[in-house]
Amino acid sequence: MSIKPILIHPDPRLKKVADPVSAITPELGRLAEDMLETMYDAPGIGLAAPQVGVLSRLLVMDCVKDPEAAPRPMVLFNPQVTWSSEERSVYEEGCLSIPEQYAEVERPAVVRVKWLALDGTEQEEEFSDLWATCVQHEIDHLNGKLFIDYLKPMRRQMITRKMQKLKREKARV
Ligand SMILES: [Zn+2]
């Protein structure tokens, strides 16, 4: 396993629609393991393949908050929202590709999601609370969408400028 570098916004790869996975190859299995390791190391609660520069419909997440509780690493290939609640909820979101920037985003409070697991079996589950927000945020990544796209243009541009500055500073080191 290895930790992958995470792309920082703005990056054209974060704006692309990722391709469906037609077969879960051993390479994709290894990528999923690396993404989990990268996510836990960051630390974060979700990571989508485009964030490590791979334009495939794959995301990983673990939204268990209690440090005493057992972790629940999840790997989702080709995730699809099959139902979302009319009830909405607001969470303060952040993103590993937009470090240290947070903003409130409103999304459906509960979603049902269908996906292929690492072993190729089809799974379906209802997510609520933080899990619902996280899975929707990560699926957005597979469609080239970032949480700042939900914000007003002024706020979005401000964050983008901060990230450009951060990238320039990083490049100089
Ligand atoms: Zn993100």
Automatic annotation (TrEMBL):
Belongs to the polypeptide deformylase family. CDD domains: Pep_deformylase. The keyword Transport does not apply. Its cofactor is Fe(2+). The gene is def. It catalyses: N-terminal N-formyl-L-methionyl-[peptide] + H2O = N-terminal L-methionyl-[peptide] + formate. Its EC number is 3.5.1.88. InterPro entries: Peptide_deformylase, Peptide_deformylase_sf. Removes the formyl group from the N-terminal Met of newly synthesized proteins. Requires at least a dipeptide for an efficient rate of reaction. N-terminal L-methionine is a prerequisite for activity but the enzyme has broad specificity at other positions. This is Peptide deformylase.
